[in-house]
Design a protein that fits this description.
The complex is a heterodimer of chains A (419) and B (260).
Chain A (H helix, E strand, L loop, with lengths): L2 H15 L11 E2 L9 E2 L6 E2 L5 E2 L1 E5 L26 H13 L5 E5 L6 H17 L6 E5 L6 H10 L2 E3 L7 H7 L5 H24 L11 E7 L6 H14 L4 E6 L18 H16 L4 H4 L13 H8 L6 E2 L5 H4 L7 H10 L7 H7 L3 H4 L3 E2 L12 H10 L17
Parallel strand pairs in A: 5-6, 6-7, 7-8, 8-9, 9-10, 11-12
Antiparallel strand pairs in A: 1-2, 3-4
Chain B lengths: L3 E6 L3 H13 L3 E7 L10 E4 L4 H14 L1 H11 L6 H14 L11 H23 L3 E2 L5 E5 L6 H11 L5 E5 L4 E5 L4 E4 L19 H16 L8 H7 L12 H5 L1
Parallel strand pairs in B: 1-2, 1-3, 5-6
Antiparallel strand pairs in B: 4-5, 6-7, 7-8
Protein name (chain B): Probable DNA metabolism protein
InterPro entries (chain B): DNA_repair_put, DUF4130
Organism (chain B): Pseudozobellia thermophila
Chain lengths: 419, 260
């Protein structure tokens, strides 16, 4: 094969695939059978990080960037004048195996522009995965994109070879989708999602009875939403994320700050800032919902449709709900500890273990690794020194902001109010 | 006071465990445990050289394991951190483990316990990093060869990972700093020492020992790494936080950065 040509294609098709933020290689365990190649251990490994700070875990490429659709937000839309390329099936297989053998990657993330039809495209993606598994004896991680509109039968096959499947919902609201991707219907996205969800449930149930039942998409499915393209509120985004978590058993919902790729009056202008801080706040909220026992309605509701930009969502919640505090570190239960700003889940576990041996004071808390600059206003411990003053939320916020720094601070850098 | 001694062992983990055994058996007031290669005698204490005995080491290992499985992991990981004075710290940890009932391992308010668990975590982090940052280069002999220079002695910890992942290829991972490597011959791994003239770091020059194809794939990987970056989101601080500069010289995707 000609490395020159492959390199050209790789540059084009990796460049086009990079807006997909998912790069997880976790959640699937696949052992190495019969001295084959590779395994997945369930924890996932980031083999490198790009200069934008994102993890490189999988070889993330498109099969082709030819596409029959014209979605305004997408860099490979039909009307965009860019170089086009397409990989042969064998080329993707060879690249994956050779990268994998050198320990560059955990596996393959294969997506594609839609050419000819959804089914034709999906078939090609499945062919790559099948070849890797059956001819390459490859047990590494494979993430396939479910092509919107692909048939149920193909989705069933895809899950048998892939570890994870994903459909990107891209636009969080149905009205936004109509505006930006008039050729696509909302159902095109949800149909394959629903199929995959049901298959996962069914295969899992069968596996409990018959152990030899093959694995079906063991790492589940994920989706992605573009942030800041259609003027949606944080509430719109998080409520629809919760919808996908609960109705489609999503493993992950990704939030991707819109990177302007088109000169289109419906979208933010080229060169406008990527909303990275907002993206960060949404991920923080996502974590609060999935690991910290928060309900989405507590953080975002009609009174507070958008997240605070200057403080993280947990601190924001705490400042609005000061009546829950202060919390006694030595007595409070796990649920309440997890709600204190500046205490992460790891610290919660450590606190609960450590306080069985003795009452904890500030010195202990500091060494265990709490972010006391935030936590100290919300807790008491085995010490008579604690925040006795009955401070108002604004005052606490002011003091916390004054005693901390943040890399995004300059972006909302209006003069901070002095108490 | 009359039984206070510095124990000297041969530098192996088994040797260290034997030293613990001796300390317990002879009720030694331990003031230090040192490797024979770096030992310094104290002014007021005697030294005693401990001969490594695998059966004694094993008894200590099993004894700790019976007490707590996470303790044994912490001890092994923290030992591999090679920190100065780690032996004495671990000895105190073992004393705590055997002196009290209850799971002292999680008493994070205790200085020694917290320190050991933090060290073990650092070593665990380095292990994970090495599983990520090893870059194999295919030599003309058909061996996938990698150099590493980890902060801690993690080769024994990553062996299993690479053995089960790359079961169908010959590979060798060589720790340049500690001058030994692991070689996998499709059957099992063995410890090897090489007489390397120079470490095979990133180089723009073609290495005659490598297959031609190897250079092509490094080039492809390099290109991929660049194409997958989103320029409008650049965040070099985060980048170097995840991939600290000390690892760059062995990462083929960072080749241009190292050359510059």
């Amino acid at each position: 094969m000609s490395f020159e040509r492959i390199r050209e294609k790789l540059n084009i098709l990796a460049d086009a695939a990079k807006y997909d933020v998912s790069c997880a290689s976790s959640g699937s365990t696949r052992s190495n059978k019969n001295k084959g190649l590779g395994n997945s251990t369930g924890m996932g490994i980031c083999h490198s990080y790009t200069e934008d700070g994102r993890c490189v875990s999988l070889l993330k490429i498109l099969m082709t960037n030819h596409c029959i659709f014209d979605c305004a937000y997408c860099v490979t839309r039909k009307s965009n004048d860019i170089p086009r390329a397409a990989f042969k099936i064998q080329e993707v297989v060879d690249l994956t195996l050779n990268f994998y053998r050198r320990n560059y990657i955990e596996g393959l993330f294969l997506s594609s522009g839609i050419f000819k039809s959804a089914d034709y495209t999906m078939e090609r993606l499945i062919a790559v995965a099948k070849k890797l598994r059956e001819e390459g004896n490859f047990n590494g991680y494979i993430h396939l994109k479910s092509i919107p509109g692909a048939s149920d039968e193909l989705m069933r096959q895809a899950g048998l070879y892939a570890d994870r499947l994903s459909v990107n919902i891209e636009v969080p609201t149905v009205s936004g989708l109509k505006l930006l991707a008039p050729d696509k219907k909302h159902e095109d996205f949800t149909k394959p999602m629903l199929k995959v969800k049901n298959e996962i449930i069914q295969y899992r149930a069968e596996r409990k009875i018959i152990k030899s039942t093959p694995k079906y998409a063991p790492a589940g499915q994920s989706t992605q939403m573009i942030i800041g393209a259609t003027g949606e509120s944080d509430k719109d985004i998080m409520y629809s994320a919760v919808h996908y978590y609960t109705h489609y058993n999503m493993k992950r919902v990704y939030y991707s700050g819109y990177v302007p790729v088109a000169d289109d009056s419906r979208l933010p202008a080229l060169g406008s800032q990527v909303p990275m801080l907002r993206e960060n706040r949404l991920y923080q909220t996502d974590w609060l919902l999935r690991f910290y026992g928060f309900q989405v309605t507590e953080i975002l509701n009609s009174e507070h449709p958008n997240l605070d930009i200057d403080v993280d969502p947990k601190l924001g919640w705490a400042l609005r709900n000061l009546h829950h505090f202060p919390v006694d570190i030595n007595k409070a239960d796990k649920v309440l500890l997890a709600r204190v700003p500046g205490i992460g889940m790891r610290s919660v576990d450590k606190l609960i273990q450590a306080r069985r041996f003795r009452k904890l004071n500030w010195e202990h808390l500091k060494r265990i690794g709490l972010a006391l600059n935030r936590a100290k206003y919300f807790i008491t411990c085995d010490s008579s020194h604690w925040e006795h003053r009955d401070l108002e939320a604004d005052k606490i916020k002011g003091m916390i902001l004054q005693n901390s720094s943040g890399k995004f601070r300059k972006e909302y850098g209006k003069q901070l109010q002095l108490f | 006071m009359n039984n206070s001694r510095i124990l000297i062992y041969d530098g192996s983990f088994n040797g260290f465990l034997t030293a613990i055994f001796v300390a317990f058996e002879e009720k030694v007031q331990v003031v230090g445990i040192q490797k024979s290669s770096v030992c310094q005698s104290g002014l007021f204490s005697e030294t005693q050289t401990v001969l490594t005995q695998v059966d004694k080491a094993k008894r200590v290992w099993e004894g700790i394991k019976k007490r707590s499985r996470s303790a044994i992991k912490n001890i092994y990981f923290a030992y591999l951190s090679e920190q100065e004075g780690i032996e004495l710290l671990l000895y105190r940890y073992v004393l705590k483990l055997f002196s009290k009932d209850g799971d002292v391992v999680r008493n994070y308010a205790d200085g020694t316990v917290l320190k050991i668990s933090q060290l073990a975590r650092s070593v665990g982090r380095e292990k994970h990093r090495m599983e990520a940052f090893v870059r194999f280069q295919l030599t003309k002999d058909g061996i996938y060869f990698a150099h590493i220079e980890p902060d801690f002695d993690v080769l024994p910890l990553i062996s299993k990972h690479f053995r089960s992942r790359y079961a169908d290829q010959y590979w060798l991972i060589y720790d340049v700093r500690r001058r030994y490597g692991l070689y996998y011959n499709l059957e099992k791994t063995e410890i090897v020492t090489l007489d390397l003239k120079q470490a095979c770091t990133n180089s723009i020059h073609r290495n005659p020992a490598l297959q031609d194809e190897e250079h092509a794939y490094q080039d492809l990987w390099n290109n991929y790494f660049k194409s997958t970056n989103i320029k409008s989101r650049i965040n070099l601080k985060l980048h170097t936080q995840h991939v600290p500069k000390r690892y760059w010289k062995y990462l083929s995707e960072k080749k241009p950065a190292v050359q510059a």
